[in-house]
Amino acid sequence: MLVLMVAMLLQMQVPGVAEHRVTDIFKPLASPAEAEKNIAYLTFAITGAIFLVVASLLVYTIYRFRRRPGDDAHQEPPQVYGSNQIEIAWTVIPILIVFVLIGVSARVIAAVENASPPVKKLDVTLIGHQWWWEVNYPQYGFTTANEIHIPANVDGKTATYFKLQSMDVIHSFWVPQLSGKTDLIPNRDNFTWIDPKQPGVYVGNCAEYCGTQHANMFLRVVADTPEDFRKWAAAQQKDGAEDAGAARGKNAFLSLSCANCHVVQGTTAKGKFGPDLTHLMSRQTIGAGVLTNTAQNLRAWVNDPQEAKPGCLMPGMRLTDQELDQVMSYLRTLD
Ligand code: CUA
Hints:
With 335 residues, the protein is α+β, with helices and mostly antiparallel strands. The chain is 36% helix and 19% strand. A hairpin with a 2-residue loop joins strand 1 (120-129) and strand 2 (132-137). The chain binds dinuclear copper ion. Dinuclear copper ion (CUA) binds next to loops.
């Protein structure tokens, strides 16, 4: 029962996204999460046993020493002072349990951290921002946001290694089916790795409170087949699309404040405060997972991001309908 309740608490769903994906630490699909699942079971078994023993003793005591008719309400029951045996027992047993848990955890942490890198190793630098994720691919030289495409480990020789950094406060990378949490800490590099065995979308969330929109700092790991990943990476390396029909939209985008905070490769938009928009339309969601990336949602988002994500650092720009139309016509070409 207890295990079930905790398992339910650990499941998360992404609002606004059509396919609700449930995450579950008991259904791991990558090596680090698999190793960690067994610790979770062991911990639940030990704490469950402790709960049963304590609860049974409590219930027994409440029943056995209940007040009965004829008891003198003012007379205390016999008091017992000191028992070396009992005191030694309740000191030694918890110490042993704690040492077992520390030992097992340390062994798994060491095994995950010291795992030797596989033949095919993709490097990703993941940078936490309030409240979105910047995703850099140093081997390929491009940047994206919130959706981390990686090759699935279909051949048993592929893994993705993350360097984790933060631009502002402490965030935490957690995709429950792939690996345990690892913090992103300012002025420090942390590392973790994943090797999802099946292609698919794995949903995660920031797991360290980082401000108002912490709960809406979603993360998607998109594990592609090696071939799909190659295609995706090749497309991401290109500059922002040029579409003759959207020339006026492009001018509007570049002359408004958009360009101060966002990058579109191949244009004068070089702002670094917000997500890189070069291939915005290749993403499934906007606002770090708060909305699905449809034309209607994107328009509403650009019109006033504070509606869907109050407190987020992108202000409502008070664009006129005409400006909004132009910016939208340009953004829609960034595939
Ligand atoms: Cu980022 Cu919580």
